[in-house]
Amino acid sequence: MKKQQQSNSKQYFERLGRRESSGKYGALNYAGYLGKYQMGEAAMVDAGYYKKNGNYNNDWSGQFTGKDGVYSKEDFLKNQQAQENAVRDYSKKVWGYIKNTASKYDGEIINGIPMTQSGMLAGAHLVGQGALLKYLNSNGKYIPKDGNGVSIEEYIKNMGNYPVTDITNTPPNPSKYDIYQKILNPFYKPNSHPIMETGFAAPFTPEQIGAMNPEEFARNETEIFNQVRQGLVKSQLPSFDGYTNPLTGHNQIFTREDIGSMSNEEFAQKEKEIMAQLNSIGIPENSELESASKNGSVIYVNSYTRSDGTKVKGYYRSK
User: Fold this and answer.
1) Where are the alpha helices (H) located in the chain, listed in sequence order?
2) Half-sphere exposure in the Cβ direction for 221 (13 Å, CA)
3) pLDDT digits over 72-97, tens only?
4) Which of 124, 125, 118 minimizes the C-alpha distance to 9?
5) What is the pLDDT of residue 249?
6) Region 253-269 average pLDDT
7) Taking 60 as the threshold, does the pLDDT of residue 199 lie above it?
């Protein structure tokens, strides 16, 4: 029997097992799903433990392959190592099925939820790879659920941002949400469980870069390169007078503090407008716009309540 490999996906699978069965290797549910990871006949075929029979209803009337010494469902339920091996082999197979589409969506945001490799793998584990692909290709308009009514989005969100490159063998794309937050809000901290470092930081000015000694420059080289590539290194503030957003034509100016306080859903709704501003005048801090307001180029609009009861937060706009 092959030994269970230590891997960077260990935390992901521990979380998945707790979600599926409270981590119980002997679990057998009413629909015939087995073990810690609640694997059915089709999944066991993909993992190499069960022979194809064309009728996957989880009655386990077919034949096991004998892989890892498993010749029956009872063998499987008693064999913890086989279960760990099986879920990893199955997940690798699933990633092979979804890789082309999943890689395109990795790092994107759907319905306010960042798409990550671990989240998409978990979604496929819940409802199958076909339903996951339909969800992605519909950009979240189609939201499948499992037999217990659990939404794929619950798994994608709660199981996201775990490292699983030993399963996918594919470098993950940085999450747009984490990248933008780290660019725009120096105090932003990503989710508490491990995520890939994006390498972005609050923008340096040319003056700051020029004042760095060789050691400081070497330590910040990745951040500097990424900021230059994204056009985020600016020597002075642009004029805000008469500014309108290139995408929407609105004269609201988003600040780092505005964006840092947004929820995932709010950020997803405003993402294109924020990026249009970023590529036009950048993202100033509140203090910078406060200074600009003194010369009359911007105005601060106090928070207010519309006639329909909608509350609008205070914001800066160009004059």
Assistant:
1) 10-21, 41-47, 73-78, 80-105, 117-127, 129-137, 152-158, 165-168, 176-184, 206-211, 214-229, 256-260, 264-278, 286-294
2) 6
3) 999 999 999 999 999 999 999 999 99
4) 118
5) 93
6) 81
7) no
Phi and psi angles of residue 141, each rounded to the nearest 5 degrees, phi first: -75, -35
pLDDT of residue 5: 42
For residues 180 and 84, what is the distance between their CA atoms, to the nearest angstrom? 36
Instruction: State which amino acid sits at residue 275.
Output: M
Query: Could you tell me which residues come within 8 angstroms of residue 177 by beta carbon, excluding any fewer than 6 positions away?
Result: 109, 114, 264, 267, 268
> Cα(312)–Cα(290) distance, rounded to whole angstroms?
19
Give, to the nearest 10 degrees, the angle between helix 129-137 and helix 117-127.
Answer: 120
In whole angstroms, give the CA distance from residue 57 to residue 267. 42
**For the chain, percent of residues with pLDDT exceeding 90:** 53
pTM for this model (two decimals): 0.61
Say if residues 280 and 242 touch (Cβ distance below 8 Å).
Answer: no
**Range 151-173 average pLDDT:** 92
Residue 279 has a pLDDT of 74
Q: Rounded CA gap, 256 and 247, in Å? A: 19
Q: What is the mean pLDDT of the chain?
A: 84
Contacts of 90-95 with C-beta under 8 Å, sequence gap 24+, read 90/39, 90/43, 90/44, 90/46, 90/47, 91/9, 91/121, 91/125, 91/164, 91/167, 92/167, 92/168, 93/46, 93/47, 94/46, 94/121, 94/124, 94/125, 94/129, 95/121, 95/167, 95/168, 95/169, 95/170
Please report, for the chain, the start and end positions of each structural domain, with discontinuous segments joined by +. 10-168, 174-235, 237-319
